[in-house]
Amino acid sequence: MDLDGTITNKGINNTFDFLRSYFYSYGIFGIIRYHLAKLASGLLGKLAGNEVISRRLFLALCTFGLRRSRLCDYAIRQWLKLIKIHVNGTVLDLIRKLRDQGYSPIMLTSCIEIPSCPIADSLEFEQCIATKFKYLGDLIIGISEDTHGQLKLQVAREKYGSNFLKHSAYVVDLESAKIESPHKFFGKIYLIDHCRIKTISLSDMIKGSLDNCT
Fold this sequence. Notes:
This protein has 214 residues and is an alpha/beta fold.
């Protein structure tokens, strides 16, 4: 299951909104650091002409030297309170139904592992695939595995195998599905569009049913 726009409602970004909230909690110096990272990565990204590079630069600049323990503590004490307000109830009902059918829920997201893993734990997901940090002891020193966009599906395929994914269902919002092309990986897709759910098979995806989802 996807996170942003699927498990949590549209308008909440569990990478950028989370980091902004964390730095803003430290007052003026935190605010300055966040916006300097945003400005520098934006300028360098424009020079490179690549939004993916801009994102990675922002994450590297923004998180370098942060303590994993403090970031996790903030995610659990503060961020989860906000997320509980913005969880999509329709998707939670679908999770329960899929569990009853024998599915084991796995979170599959482009977001950073903190707060994605604490969110997955709080919702009783068995595993969480997310963008991973590189650590030196307790300090974050970079990104070790990026799951941005379709990369997360490739990571899932490497971890579980193509056959496993073809016999799995993927729950994702409409906008993400158009970017990720999940029909290349999964046999069944549950599209979340403004709290409505539409089941899409592999053949439907190939025929272009994504563009007709209402």
